[in-house]
Design a protein that fits this description.
This protein is α+β, with helices and mostly antiparallel strands and about 475 residues long. Strand 25 and strand 26 form a beta hairpin. The longest helix is centred in the middle third of the chain and has 21 residues.
C-alpha cells in the first residue's frame, strides 16, 4: 500500500497513480457524507468520505473507521465471488474516514424496477437468488435497501458496506433482517404471485409471515427516523439558510405573486406564477405537513402535490411550503362530481369509482390514512388520477375499522346527494373486498352515521347543504 497525507487525512492506496487524484480532491456532499468521482484508467473511481460527529463518532473513527471497514469488506466480498465495486484504498483522519472504489455505471435496483426497464419476474428472481447467496455466506448487510444494490451488465452489485457483517452463526433474525430491508421499498406494490414466486425462488416460503411482521415494525421505525430528520440536511433534503429543499426541486418555486386563493384562521394559500405557497398559522401543522412530504419523497410515492421547499417560520412571519400548482390540471372531487356526474356514462362512472377505490387501497397498503378525507381534499386530475390535499392531516398508521368508518362517512357526506346509492355501494365494495373485515357490520355503521348528518360540499356555485 502507498501511504500519503493530505489535509490531516492519511491515505492508504493500492496504486501509485491514485496520489494525483487524492491531491486534487474537492469534495461535495450534504454535511454528513461527501462524494467525489474522477476518471481513472479508462474507468471512474468513486470516493466517499464519512464525517464523524460527537463522542460516538470519534470512538468509532478511532477503533473501526467506516472507510477502512468498507475497503476490507469489499476485498472479502470480491474474494468469495460476490459483486461489489473494486476497492482501491481508504483514508483516515481525526474526524473523517474515506474509501476509494470503482465507480459502477449501473442504476440501483429500485430505479430500474420503477422505470420498468426490465421484466419484473426476472428482477425479483435475481434479487431472491442474490439474498440466498448472502445467506449462504453468512452476510448480514444491516442497510440492504434497494438503492444499495446496483444492476450493471446483468449482475447485482452490493454497495454501502460499512454496516455489513460476516456472521459466524447466521440466525433467523439475520436472515429476516436482510429480506425485510431488501423488500421494504417494494413489497406493498408486489402482486400476490410475485410474492409467492420470490419466496419460492429464495427457498423458504415459510419465512414470508416472519418477513411481513418485521416489515410492519421496520416501516414504523423507518418513518419515525425520516420524520425526525425532516429539518436536517440529508440525501433528500438540501438546507439553504431558512429554506429546506427536497432533492431535485432546488430551482423550483421562484415566481412572483398572482393571487390569494384562501385565507382563514388556519392557513393562507397564495398562487405564484410557477407554484403555490401554503402559509401555516400553526407551527406544528407546518411541521406535520413537511414531515409527510419528506416521508413520501423517501417512499417514492406520489399521493399529493409535489412539495418544492419549506420556509421556516420567524418571529414576524408564518412558515410556508412551496408546492406545485394544480390549477388547470383538474379539480376537487366534490366540485368535479357536481359539474360532471350527471353527464358521465355508466362506463365512465365505473372507471371513476374503480380508480378511486384502487387509489385508497394503495394508500392503506402503505399504511397511510388521511384524517380529514372530505370530498374537497380529494383532487381529480386529468385522465382520472387522484391526489390528496392537506398533507398536515396525513398519518402513517394501519387502517383499522374505526378509522375506515370515519373516512367513509366523511367522504359520503361531502359529495353531492345526486351520486347514486349504486355508485356509493360499488365504491364501498371495491374498496373493502380485499380487507379482512366484517363488511356487513362496517356498511351498517357507515350508513347509520351518514344518515344522521347533513351533506355539505363545495359545488360549482359554492357551498351546498343537502338532506338525505
Amino acid at each position: 500500500m502507498r501511504v500519503i497525507e493530505k489535509d490531516g487525512i492519511k491515505w492508504f492506496l493500492k496504486e501509485e497513480e491514485l496520489k494525483d487524484i487524492v491531491n486534487a480532491l474537492q469534495l461535495e456532499g450534504n454535511g454528513r457524507r461527501y462524494y467525489y468521482t474522477a476518471p481513472y484508467k479508462e474507468k471512474k473511481i468513486f470516493i466517499k468520505l464519512f464525517l464523524e460527529k460527537g463522542t460516538a463518532g470519534a470512538l468509532r473513527n478511532r477503533f473501526s473507521p467506516r472507510g477502512e471497514k468498507e475497503y476490507k469488506l469489499s476485498e472479502k466480498l470480491k474474494s468469495i465471488g460476490i459483486c461489489t465495486p473494486e476497492p482501491f484504498g481508504y483514508g483516515s483522519g481525526k474526524k473523517i474516514s474515506c474509501v476509494i472504489e470503482e465507480f459502477i455505471e449501473g442504476e440501483s435496483f429500485i430505479q430500474i424496477l420503477l422505470k420498468g426497464k426490465a421484466d419484473r419476474a426476472t428482477l425479483f428472481s435475481l434479487l431472491s437468488s442474490f439474498l440466498n447467496t448472502l445467506k449462504k455466506n453468512h452476510i448480514r448487510h444491516n442497510d440492504l435497501h434497494l438503492d444499495n444494490i446496483l444492476i450493471y451488465d446483468g449482475k447485482l452489485y452490493l454497495i454501502d458496506l460499512h454496516k455489513m457483517k460476516f456472521k459466524k452463526r447466521f440466525t433467523l433474525n439475520d436472515e429476516v433482517s436482510n429480506l425485510t430491508h431488501a423488500l421494504a421499498m417494494v413489497y406493498d406494490d408486489m402482486k400476490e404471485k410475485e410474492k409467492e414466486a420470490f419466496f419460492s425462488t429464495y427457498g423458504s416460503p415459510a419465512l414470508r409471515s416472519y418477513v411481513e411482521e418485521n416489515l410492519q415494525r421496520l416501516r414504523r421505525r423507518w418513518i419515525r427516523k425520516k420524520k425526525k430528520r425532516a429539518f436536517e440536511a440529508t440525501s433528500k433534503i438540501k438546507v439553504a439558510d431558512e429554506y429546506l429543499y427536497l432533492s431535485g426541486y432546488e430551482n423550483c418555486g421562484k415566481g412572483t405573486p398572482v393571487e390569494v386563493i384562501k385565507d382563514d384562521r388556519k392557513v393562507r394559500v397564495e398562487r405564484y406564477t410557477d407554484h403555490v405557497r401554503k402559509y401555516y398559522r400553526n407551527k406544528k401543522r407546518l411541521e406535520r405537513a413537511w414531515k409527510t412530504h419528506v416521508v413520501l419523497a423517501y417512499m417514492n410515492y406520489t399521493m399529493g402535490p409535489a412539495a418544492y421547499y419549506v420556509r421556516r417560520p420567524s418571529l414576524t412571519e408564518d412558515g410556508y411550503i412551496a408546492m406545485e400548482d394544480l390549477k388547470d390540471r383538474g379539480e376537487e372531487f366534490d366540485r368535479y362530481l357536481d359539474r360532471h356526474y350527471g353527464h358521465l356514462t355508466f362506463s365512465e362512472r365505473k372507471i371513476l369509482i374503480d380508480k378511486l377505490a384502487r387509489f385508497f387501497q394503495t394508500m392503506f397498503q402503505k399504511n397511510i390514512v388521511h384524517k380529514d378525507c372530505k370530498g374537497c381534499n380529494v383532487y381529480v386530475c386529468e385522465g382520472v388520477r387522484f391526489l390528496l390535499l392537506d398533507m398536515e392531516d396525513v398519518i402513517f398508521r394501519d387502517i383499522d375499522e374505526e378509522r375506515l368508518i370515519r373516512m367513509l362517512v366523511q367522504l359520503n357526506t361531502t359529495i353531492p346527494r345526486k351520486v347514486s346509492f349504486y355508485d356509493r355501494m360499488r365504491f364501498f365494495l371495491r374498496l373493502t373486498t380485499v380487507m379482512k373485515i366484517d363488511m356487513k357490520k362496517l356498511f351498517s355503521q357507515v350508513v347509520k352515521r351518514s344518515l344522521i348528518q347533513e351533506i355539505i360540499y363545495e359545488g360549482v356555485q359554492g357551498i351546498v347543504r343537502e338532506q338525505w
